């Protein structure tokens, strides 16, 4: 069985960057094979995939094989596994990265894969992401793509041949454009304990954040497609702790989740038609910064921030599944 998605990003000059993620899995062998292919235009060879990260939410998952050999397995905060190019070569247009994941127990009931993310040309901060989950129902819809299964095909009786010998003219193709929505997402997160932060010298105690997202089609209505999802963010900073009468600086992080929705207009959409998400990406970080400054309640000589605010723009694109015309 195969699970796949097209991922979408935007380059520094507005170029459309794409990658394909294929996941072939077999419940009997408890093994999945991931294939990440760079499908960005060959006219922009500098846009390479340098890093692929996986969150494996189930226990006892293990990456066993990686090809090509210039990609190596690392562990990184926020992800269970990071496959990172060690040579600077990366994956160019048309090249493919393959790795295998083995799950040792509870395969049939586990939501074993959550949020594979690829980063195209990491130096420019261009990210593309999609999420998949392994449900027990083999025909369940998938987030960020759709699922192809071994569902048996039903044979239909052959139609009665027409009386005339003149072949019917071909039907005109049906337009199936890609439709998108852009969502402005705002978040405010309380930092408890407070973050060490000096607004006059922000580099003294940096506050950083990392974000991913899940997105899905919630409902198809007449002329409308309803999109829903969640932005997951992790805010990392330094804070203070008492240490036997003295004070020490420790690393800390806070996680938060922001839900979002949008509606895409499609004149050809009818109730419960099948659409798929063909691309989703953060387009712009409007701002992301600490706020609500003051002094630490226990250590008043240290400046702190009690809040982190951010605003970003997320773009989601869909296309209708199987919009080709039926034969006469």
Could you explain the architecture of this structure?
This protein has 328 residues and is mostly beta strands. The chain has two domains: 2-148, Immunoglobulin-like; 181-320, no CATH class. Helix content is 0%, strand content 57%. It is built from no helices and 17 strands. The chain has strands spanning 2-10, 16-26, 31-38, 49-55, 61-67, 71-76, 79-85, 96-103, 114-120, 126-129, 146-148, 179-196, 208-221, 224-243, 246-265, 275-295, 303-320. The strands form four sheets. Strands 5-8-3-2-1-11 form a six-stranded antiparallel beta sheet, with no helix packed on it. It has a five-stranded antiparallel beta sheet with strand order 6-7-4-9-10, with no helix packed on it. Strand 13 and strand 14 (224-243) form a beta hairpin. The chain is extended.
Biggest sheet layout: 6 strands, antiparallel
Total number of β-strand segments?
Answer: 17
**H/E element string?**
EEEEEEEEEEEEEEEEE
**Helix segment tally:** 0
CATH architecture of the largest domain: Sandwich
**Helix proportion:** under 10%
Secondary-structure-based class equals: mainly beta
Q: State the strand order across the main sheet.
A: 5-8-3-2-1-11
CATH topology of the largest domain: Immunoglobulin-like
Instruction: Choose one word for the global shape.
Output: extended
Low-confidence stretches are 107-152
- Broad CATH class of the largest domain: Mainly Beta
Rg from Cα = 24 Å
Average pLDDT over all residues: 75
How far apart the termini lie comes to 32 Å
Strand content: over 45%
* Total discrete domains: 2
């Amino acid at each position: 069985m195969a699970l796949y998605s097209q991922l979408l990003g935007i380059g520094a000059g507005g170029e459309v960057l794409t990658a394909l993620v294929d996941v072939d899995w077999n419940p009997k062998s408890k093994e999945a094979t991931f294939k990440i292919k760079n499908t960005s235009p060959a006219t922009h060879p500098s846009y390479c995939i340098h890093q692929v990260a996986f969150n494996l939410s189930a226990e006892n998952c293990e990456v066993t094989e990686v090809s090509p050999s210039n990609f190596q397995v690392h562990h990184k905060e926020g992800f269970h596994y990071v496959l990172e190019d060690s040579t600077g070569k990366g994956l160019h247009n048309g090249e493919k990265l393959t790795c295998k994941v083995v799950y040792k127990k509870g395969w049939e009931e586990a939501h074993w894969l959550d949020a594979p993310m690829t980063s195209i040309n990491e130096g420019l901060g261009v990210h593309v992401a999609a999420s998949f989950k392994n449900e027990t129902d083999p025909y369940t819809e998938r987030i960020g793509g759709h699922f192809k299964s071994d569902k048996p095909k039903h044979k239909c009786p052959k139609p009665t041949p027409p009386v005339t010998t003149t072949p019917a003219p071909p039907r005109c193709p049906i337009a199936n454009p890609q439709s998108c929505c852009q969502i402005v997402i705002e978040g405010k997160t309380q930092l408890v304990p407070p973050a060490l932060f000096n607004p006059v010298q922000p580099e003294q105690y940096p506050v950083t954040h990392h974000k991913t997202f899940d997105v899905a089609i919630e409902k198809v209505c007449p002329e409308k497609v309803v999109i829903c999802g969640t932005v997951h963010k992790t805010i990392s900073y330094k804070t203070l702790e008492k240490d036997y009468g003295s004070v020490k600086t420790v690393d800390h992080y806070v996680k938060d989740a922001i839900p979002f929705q949008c509606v895409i207009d499609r004149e050809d959409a009818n109730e419960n038609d099948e659409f798929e998400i063909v691309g989703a990406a953060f387009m712009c970080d409007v701002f992301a910064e600490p706020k609500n400054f003051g002094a630490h309640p226990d250590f008043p000589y240290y400046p702190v921030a009690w809040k982190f605010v951010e605003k970003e723009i997320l773009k989601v694109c869909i296309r209708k599944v199987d919009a080709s015309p039926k034969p006469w």
